[in-house]
Amino acid sequence: MPLLNRLAVDTNFLLDLALPKDATHDALETIRECIKAAEIIVPPTVVHEITYMALDGDHEMHQRATKVVQKLVPVWHFTPVNALSEMQEAAAEDIARDLRRKNVLPEAERHDSEILAESAALGCSILVSADSHLCDADKSMVSLMVAAHGAGPIVVCKPAEIVALFAKRR
Hints:
Blueprint: E1 3-9, H1 11-17, H2 23-34, E2 39-42, H3 44-56, H4 59-71, E3 79-80, H5 86-101, H6 110-121, E4 124-128, H7 132-135, H8 139-148, E5 155-157, H9 159-167
Parallel strand pairs: 1-2, 1-4, 2-3, 4-5
């Protein structure tokens, strides 16, 4: 069951936080102000991608990913999840496979499907991402696939959408 105060973030969100202030920083500020006791989860695939980039990325990605690793917990207070429980892992694998099999996400976007599926399996209600594959995925199909495996609902939102959504409530 998703928790309304539990959100997940994807790799590009974290890498954008390593850059000067922009919509991503505004989204984080908005989340902190408007969602009381927000828990921001970093799914396992995102943890692995950031770790890989910090160790083996090109110069720019290495610098950004290293900054993410340094700030992830002590500054941003995010919760990195290194592994799912067996039950969560099984659900996430099934969801990700179905998202690709039904062409909700392209087969080549394996990590995107895993990030979305892991976020749902972890009980997140929102995945914050600027990735066009995730943001443009058919929301109805995502809901159906996630629900079919006992997870969800989860919505993918761009950082600017988070700011706009809560601007009306401030």
